[in-house]
Amino acid sequence: MAVQEGVAPAAPETSEAPHRLASGALGLPGVIFCIVTGAAPMTAMLFNVPVAVMGSGYSAPAAFLLATIALTIFSVGYIAMSRRVTSAGGFYTFVTRGLGRIPGVGSGVLIALCYMLFSASVIGVMGYFAATSIESWTGVKIPVWVYMFVALGVMTVLAWFHIELTTKILGVSLVLEVLALVILSVGVFAHGGAHGLSAKPMNPAEVFGNSSAAHTFGTAAAGVALFAAFWSWVGFEMAPNYAEESRDPHRIAKTATYGSVIGLGVLYMIVSYAFVSGWGLSQAAEAVKAQFAGTYDSAFYPLAETFVGHWLVVMMQVLAIVSPFACAMAFYNTGARYLYSLAREGVAPAPLARTSKHHSPAAASMTVTVLVGLIVLGFTVYDSSTLGALTKLGTWAPLMGVLGILGVQGLTSFAVIRYFLTTARDGFHWFTTLVAPILGAAAMIGACYLLVENRDVLAGNGDVAFIKYLPEAVILMFALGVGIALWLQANKPAQYAALGHFDHADPVDAAIPPAPPVADGQPAVS
Question: What is the DSSP string of 148-183?
Answer without folding.
Answer: HHHHHHHHHHHTTS-HHHHHHHHHHHHHHHHHHHHH
